[in-house]
Specification:
With about 450 residues, this protein is an alpha/beta fold. It has 2 domains: about 190 residues, 3-Layer(bba) Sandwich (FAD/NAD(P)-binding domain), CATH 3.50.50.60; about 200 residues, FAD/NAD(P)-binding domain. Strands 7-6-5-2-1-8-20 form a 7-stranded mixed sheet. Strand 5 and strand 6 form a beta hairpin. Helix 1 runs parallel beside helix 10 and helix 6 packs antiparallel against helix 7. The longest helix has 20 residues. The radius of gyration is 24 Å and the shape is globular. The termini are far apart. Belongs to the NADH dehydrogenase family. One of its GO terms (molecular function) is NADH dehydrogenase activity. This is FAD-dependent oxidoreductase. Keywords: FAD, Flavoprotein, Membrane, NAD, Oxidoreductase, Transmembrane, Transmembrane helix. InterPro entries: FAD/NAD-bd_sf, FAD/NAD-binding_dom, NDH-2.
Length: about 450
């Protein structure tokens, strides 16, 4: 698609309305670069996001293990995007033909208006992705996700609560289910969550008079023949060996068939009574993409050019997990950029530069980035990495994992706080407190008022 200058129909001196849908990596960084590149009064930048913060997902496993405070895993949009308007709400549909995004906010639901339209001149679609679930019986009722900071902290509380249950029961069936933890998905999220939580739980057992770390059973279920494919076969095999050395039951080429009644049935015939089933088996584009009049590929992603324009359109841009962006640095013709943070952050910079160039009537650039590699944590002082063709494992890989992500977390404020917490966690003992009541903060008051809490006494 040929480069085209900006739409001059707005007239000279008219303020361009730039609407960014999504407050994740792409949304935050695109808006951040735009507010730096554009002159004051040149454009009005609005960011629509379901949450008033961006979650730095690589740190979710550390937040779940208690190594980092939850508030340091998120970046407040309003503080960083001080020259933008931030609207906390959910975009439900896009009509590019009418240059309008339909939005629902808490206020619009409260006052009865329901949804309203937000007009724009330039649209950036960066809604990200959601968990890719399958129609597994019992999954919706008993599965736990691991994509948000709320889910990470909820999972930490849940795991510690299972130790409380196991310590106080005499029922062997309840004991077995409480001490069996099943994680489905051998990608970054699943492996790092399992490794960090296993470390945390094993440490926590020393404070229970009748539990030992060996009593806990951790099971990793992966339908493919290897885990962590991003770090290469050799490092993936090492990760399997390391997890098995730590008594993690790694089941490759195995699927979850059912988890009804809190019993996990695997495709190899294994039956696992469990009160903890964590689902991290991939992602899919945000459903918003399907509610647009823009072109999509077979995977449901927005079809984009290398300039990060939505193909066949003007004034619509996209990047990140919900966009199919050509990978010009790949050896294979027709390859697409993998949906990860490494590409998303860099795409955002190119995207902001191209929007700025379009508004100024200048040529657009193409996104090109050779993937530097991948790093993954396997718990405290253990990791694997494949960076620029070099393979690392053990402590060096774990250290590289921390250094890399510390350098990538937005804002100096967050970098300093995370580094301080890592330093303190190395000097003092872990916190082993479960604050599960945070999930139902009104439960005690409702009970005092004579009303049973949501879900009853055994709500967790």
């Amino acid at each position: 698609m040929a480069d085209t200058p900006r739409d001059t129909t707005r007239g000279a001196g008219t303020v361009a309305r730039i609407l960014v849908v999504g407050g994740g990596y792409v949304g935050l960084y695109t808006a951040l670069w735009l507010q730096r590149k554009l002159r004051a009064g040149e454009a009005a930048i609005t960011v629509v996001s379901p949450d008033p913060y961006m979650t730095y997902q690589p740190f979710l496993s550390e937040a779940a293990a208690g190594n980092i405070s939850p508030r340091h895993v998120v970046v407040p949009l309003r503080r960083v995007l001080d020259a933008c308007t931030v609207v906390v709400g959910e975009a439900t549909a896009v009509s590019h033909a009418e240059r309008t995004v339909t939005v629902r906010t808490a206020a619009s639901m409260e006052d009865g208006t329901g949804t309203f339209g937000m007009p724009y001149d330039e649209l950036v679609l960066a809604p990200g992705s959601v968990a890719r679930t399958l129609p597994v019986p019992g999954l919706a009722e008993h599965g736990l996700g691991f994509r948000t900071v709320e889910e990470a902290i909820g999972l930490r509380n849940h795991v510690i609560e299972q130790l409380d249950i196991a310590s106080s029961t005499r029922d062997p069936d309840v004991l077995e289910a409480a001490l069996t933890f099943v994680v489905v998905g051998g990608g970054y999220a699943g492996v790092e969550a399992l490794a960090e939580l296993q470390d945390m739980a094993a440490y926590t057992t020393r404070y229970y008079h009748n539990l030992k770390a060996e009593d806990l059973r951790w099971v990793l279920v992966e339908p493919e023949a290897r885990i962590l494919p991003e770090v290469g076969e050799e490092m993936g095999d090492y990760a399997v060996r390391e997890l098995r050395r730590r008594n993690v039951d790694v089941r490759l080429e195995t699927r979850l068939v059912s988890c009804e009644g809190r019993v996990a049935h695997l495709s190899d015939g294994t039956v696992l009574p469990t009160r903890t089933l964590v689902w991290t088996a991939g992602v899919r584009p945000n459903p918003l993409v399907g509610a647009t009049d823009l072109p999509r590929d077979a995977e449901g992603r927005l079809v984009c050019t290398a300039q990060l324009r939505v193909a066949g359109t003007e004034h619509a841009w996209a990047a990140g997990d919900a966009a199919a962006v050509p990978d010009l640095a790949a050896a294979e013709e027709g390859a697409l950029c993998v949906p990860d943070a490494q590409h998303a952050v860099r795409q955002a910079k190119t995207l902001a530069a191209n929007i700025t160039a379009s508004l100024h009537g200048q040529p657009l650039g193409e996104y090109r980035h050779a993937h530097a590699g991948s790093v993954a944590s396997l718990g405290l002082h253990e990791g694997v990495a494949y960076v620029h063709g070099r393979r690392l494992k053990g402590y060096p890989a774990w250290l590289l994992h921390r250094v890399y992500h510390l350098s990538r977390v937005p804002t100096f404020n967050r970098k300093a706080r995370v580094l301080a917490e890592w330093t303190l966690s190395g000097l003092f003992k872990r916190e082993i407190v479960s604050l599960g009541s945070l999930e139902h903060p009104r439960a005690e008051f409702e009970s005092a008022a004579g009303r049973e809490p949501p879900g009853g006494p055994g709500r967790r």
